[in-house]
């Protein structure tokens, strides 16, 4: 389902602060994705939220739950809650890869690194098209009031190497 809570918005920051413009698209989208494996994902994407305390991404499975930090920052604890745990506490999972502390913008450095090493890029055109198809399908499903089938099937990208964060830090001085 989709909605737009306001007919106009005002730019809050930057050189165009105070400029008002009409809202012509959905600004709140929520949906359920059924994956090829049968797993379900619930999505909430919104420009209509001032602040939230919800988890950024949590995965619930038969063996427990996994909670990951804000994907915009590539940093923070990954937490695991095991269904069979003696104590009912979350445990931190050791970092095994990624770009801790890199924040946004690392994608272009990752692209350059894969180009330099002649390896496939994680966010290639097939994956980008799939993401676009899913986003468009959410809007189409909301308009039609029924599910929309996805036809693209990208290859799962390679995992981010275990020491990628160190290489990024050495290159950028972070």
Structure in words:
Helix content is 23%, strand content 22%. The chain has helices at 106-116, 125-144, 164-172, and strands at 2-3, 8-10, 20-22, 28-34, 40-46, 57-60, 64-68, 78-82, 91-93. This is GFO/IDH/MocA-like oxidoreductase domain-containing protein. InterPro entries: GFO_IDH_MocA-like_dom.
End-to-end C-alpha gap: 41 Å
Structural class: alpha+beta
- What is the number of helices? 3
Rg, rounded, reads 19 Å
Q: Largest beta sheet, briefly?
A: 4 strands, antiparallel
Q: How helical, in percent, are the residues? A: 10-25%
Write out the strand line-up for the largest beta sheet, numbering strands in chain order: 6-7-8-9
Q: What low-confidence regions span 5 or more consecutive residues with pLDDT below 50?
A: none
* N-to-C order of helices and strands: EEEEEEEEEHHH
Number of strands: 9
The pLDDT mean sits at: 87
Query: What gross morphology would you assign?
Result: globular
- DSSP strand (E) fraction? 15-25%
Strand and helix layout:
Layout: E1 2-3, E2 8-10, E3 20-22, E4 28-34, E5 40-46, E6 57-60, E7 64-68, E8 78-82, E9 91-93, H1 106-116, H2 125-144, H3 164-172
Protein name: GFO/IDH/MocA-like oxidoreductase domain-containing protein
InterPro entries: GFO_IDH_MocA-like_dom
Domain GFO/IDH/MocA-like oxidoreductase: 18-66
Give a short summary of the structure.
The protein is α+β, with helices and mostly antiparallel strands and 174 residues long.
